[in-house]
Design a protein that fits this description.
The protein has 292 residues and is mostly helical. It is 72% helix and 0% strand. It is built from 11 helices and no strands. Helix 4 runs antiparallel to helix 9 and helix 6 crosses helix 7.
């Protein structure tokens, strides 16, 4: 934490340490982080944590049972334990979140930095394509892509990723327009660095932190979009324990057996809230203008 670091590594570690201290002072962000870590652990050890099978039930004795000591969150219309299905469904939620982030964030980062640095016709073309994607609501556009690709969790992930990259491109372009005017970019140009090297080695790393924060804040929307596709029958297919499909299954019994739809709805709400709290904390920790 010295004012004059002796090396680039020490400077990077100092910034990371300062970001961790800032993040740890935000109690709500810590709560969000703990919930997200709990989601990861539940997904990893779902087979050990689930008290019953997530795919089989007994229609004669365990159909639509209310919450009890035997079934903490009750059972559904097929006699399956809802808690066990929620635990196994966390794997699907984490699968969707991770894959969409891995696919959409790099695409948006590359498109935004290239458009912002190149300018001219390249910038206009890439941004008009981005505007076309932004003109449609994310869920409606995802529905169109899933309808074309076919129902299934893999196609749902691809559709959500296709519709999620434009905001990242806009954010990266806005930062690139500021960064390319700085003195050190002019110095790199005078040294003879190629435009691709400038974009990938000197501009893109400076935009990563902002994109990470935006991705974290968008996780709630990604989860809700995946749940919406599952609710409409275009995401994960039965008997997979996807939370949106579980809500769709429970809507038939929402007045009398409310727990069938309430349990997965509460899970979606808690996880979405956790990612929002985590994103707020990361925004405060990674914002260089907020550093003291």
């Amino acid at each position: 934490m010295s004012d004059r670091p002796l090396s680039r590594r020490q400077a990077a570690l100092g910034r990371a340490y300062g970001a961790c201290r800032t993040f740890s002072r935000n109690r709500l962000a810590m709560v969000g982080l703990l919930i997200v870590l709990a989601l990861v652990l539940v997904a990893l050890f779902a087979d050990l944590l689930a008290p019953y099978s997530a795919y089989t039930g007994d229609l004669r004795t365990t159909r639509l049972l209310p919450p009890s000591w035997a079934h903490w969150m009750g059972t559904d219309d097929q006699g399956r334990d809802i808690l066990s299905r929620l635990i196994h469904g966390s794997r699907i939620t984490l699968f969707v979140v991770v894959l969409v982030a891995v696919l959409a964030a790099p695409i948006g980062l590359i498109v935004g930095t290239v458009a912002g640095y190149a300018g001219g016709l390249v910038d206009a073309t890439l941004m008009r394509i981005t505007d076309i994607f932004l003109a449609f609501p994310r869920l409606i556009l995802a529905l169109a892509f899933v309808a074309a690709l076919g129902p299934g969790i893999e196609n749902a992930v691809i559709a959500i990723a296709i519709t999620s990259w434009p905001p990242y491109a806009r954010l990266a372009r806005a930062e690139t327009l500021t960064i390319r005017q700085t003195d050190y970019i002019a110095a790199v140009q005078l040294l003879g660095a190629s435009p691709w090297r400038i974009v990938f080695r000197h501009i893109m790393p400076l935009c990563v932190s902002s994109v990470i924060v935006r991705v974290t804040l968008d996780m709630a929307g990604i989860i809700l979009t995946a749940a919406g596709l599952g609710f409409l029958g275009l995401g994960a297919q039965p008997p997979m324990p996807e939370w949106g499909a579980m809500i769709a299954n429970g809507r038939l019994y929402v007045l009398d057996q409310w727990w069938v739809a309430a349990a997965p709805g509460a899970a979606i709400f808690i996880v979405s809230l956790a990612f929002n709290l985590l994103g707020d904390g990361l925004r405060d920790a990674l914002d260089p203008k907020a550093a003291k």
